[in-house]
Structure formats: C-alpha cells, structure tokens
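From the shared-data thread, chain only:
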Amino acid sequence: MATLGFQPPTRTRPKSSHQSSHAAVAAVAAAAVNNNSVFFRNGFPYSLPSNANTNSTNSSNDARRKRRYMIQFLHPPNSSSISPSIAEEEEGGGGKKVVVDPWSGEEEEVRFLEEEVDPVSISEWELDFCSRPILDSRGKKIWELVVCDSSLSLQYTKFFPNNVINSVTLRDAIADVCNSLGVPLPDKIRYFRSQMQTIITKACNELGIKPVPSKRVSRSCISLFLWLEERYETVYTCHPGFQKGSKPLLSLDNPFPMELPENLFGDKWAFVQLPFSAVQEEVSSLESRYAFGGSLDLDLLGIEIEDRTLIPGLAVASSRAKPLAAWMNGLEVCSLEVDVNRACLILSVGVSTRYIYATYKKNAATTREAEAWEEAKKASGGLHFLAIQESLDLDDCVGFWLLLDLPPPPV
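Structure, as tokens:
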C-alpha cells in the first residue's frame, strides 16, 4: 500500500515552472511506490427567429440585447387549460411578461439572455426537468423545467402540472427556449438526473441534440446546481404551496459500485498531494500540454484556497497511459472516494455509474492512510485530482482531472 504522509512535496517548485508541478507529482508518487504500492487491475424541424440573424450588425445587436422576463402569476389557479394567458409589456431592450398560471400560485418564471453574449456561441445547455416541493390547487407537485448555460448568460424556467410530463412536452419546451430568447438549438444538453434519462434522451434526439448525462462539475451542471439552490431559497420556499421537509421526488442515485472495465485498468497507483498553486499550474497547462483532462471554475463555485493548501489526489501509472487517459476523458469523471469498509477506491462517472477503481489490503495502517486522504479532501473543500502517467517515476502527466465532491441540490 502506498504510504500517505501528506507532507509537502520533496522537490522545490518554482511558481512559474510547469515541469516542477509534474516533478512534484512524480516525487510523491515514487516515494509511495517504494513503500509497496498495490496493483489494480434526428431531426425535429426548427428555424431561427428572424430577429436572430447574425449576418447583419443591427440584427446581431437585436439578438444580443438583454431579455429578462420576470413572470409573476397574479391569480390562483382557476382553469384546466394548459396554455396560460400572457400580457407583454416592453421595457427598453427587454420585456416583462405577466402570466395567469392555471396550476399554481405566485411562482416566478424567468426568460433571460445576456445582452453582450452572441446567441450562436451558446452551444451547450444544462437542464433539469423535475418536480418541485410545491403543491398546486389539486394537491399535486408542480414540475419545472430549468435551463441555463455554464455562465448563466442564458436562463429559462417554466412550470408544468404533473399530468403533462413526457418527452413531447419537454421537446416543445426546449424549442420554446430558442423561440423565446432568439438562440439556436444547442449541440449538447447536459443533465444530472438518471431517472429522467428516457424522457430527456427522446426529446433531445427528436431535436437533433446530443444528451449528455453527467455530474462532472466542470463539464456538467455546476451552474444549474447553484441556480437551483438560489431558486430554492428565493422562489420555492416563498410559495404558499411550499412543502417544508419534502424530499426530492427524483433523488440522485448512489448505486452499488461495479467492476472496473478492463480498458480502464492501470498498473500502479499511489495517494499523492500537491500544493494548490501546483494544481493550478497543472490545470492552466491542460490545453497546451495535455490532450486529456478537466478543470473547474473555482470562481463560479466560490472556492478560495491558499496557494500552500495541500490538495489530495490519486496518481495512476500505466504502460498504455495515453489510451487509458483517452478512455477516462470520455467518461465524464466526477469524483474519487475511499470506501474504508470495503478497502477500495470508488470512481464515479456520468450520473449514476460507480466503479471499484482500485483495492488495497485492509489493515490498521492502510485504513489510517485512506482515512487521512479523505480528511485531506474535506479540508480542501472537497477538491481532489486524478493524474495519469506512463510511470510514477516520471515528471509528465498524460491526463489531469481536477475533481470536486459537490453536494446535490436541495430539490
């Protein structure tokens, strides 16, 4: 078992040197290996609205202007009609819509596109389609579609009664996002609820959009997670139909871990750690040095860490490091965790897949090491990393993923 000391790396690292960060990983990993490291084995029709033509300057400015619609439901439900009545009042470059909602009380819906953003540049959306802890006049939970992009430059929400939840409703709502905000259909839509996979996949396929299930923070739904937390506090809890203590209808899965596919096997592994400054250098060099890896938007997450804080990680060595990193890069890697009871490391990928990534011989010493690694992860706010190398004695990494343990949204 690799020794886990959580001491500063044995090599001095100049702040401006990328090579020093590789050396730090290698130094700690090599030291761990010398202490007996273990082996482990289309087309729904759609056209852009006329005002979204980006070929002319005036049209482009029109498409880019800020649109924010704060929709307030003024009356209690008094109709079984699916289509609410809408009155629109123009306000400069945007608008305000007042909607009489047929199912619920005084929720707030949003239609927003940042003024400075080119609509064509928004090629990936984050989407949640799920019930909310709010009851309508029938005593049934209201459902909501929430759509945004990674920068929250695009924001869209829409409420639905529970008796219209299907792929056709979702497909039409996705098309309405485009028509309402003057944006093209995205190339990809990311989502994190595995229970909605069938509906979301069918709706996306009919629109020619690639659905991507993932809880991977940097490439998936972090902006959506944060926005859902905000809406929980500012919208859902303020509604008269809010059900305090109501559990999410579609909670996030945490399935029993499966055996690791053979193509993901490495040769050796070791617990390692790097100062946060070194991790930042590794991340900043991803595009210039690596073909594979992933970073995090720490500013968006509101994470502030001192440069000297030690970030725990896992270094994996393989004689076929590049193919291994390529396979890992296509898996939407989410996080790593130690299962002390089973004496193994768990790799979470996608929205509901967990693999037994590595095992170790369970004894008092290895248990302390594993627990120390998890404690270090908690101390760093859940930040950790995965590094793939050709050898634990080498400086260079073939792949580097910055990972985060992120709690699920409250809904």
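The first helix runs from residue 18 to 33.
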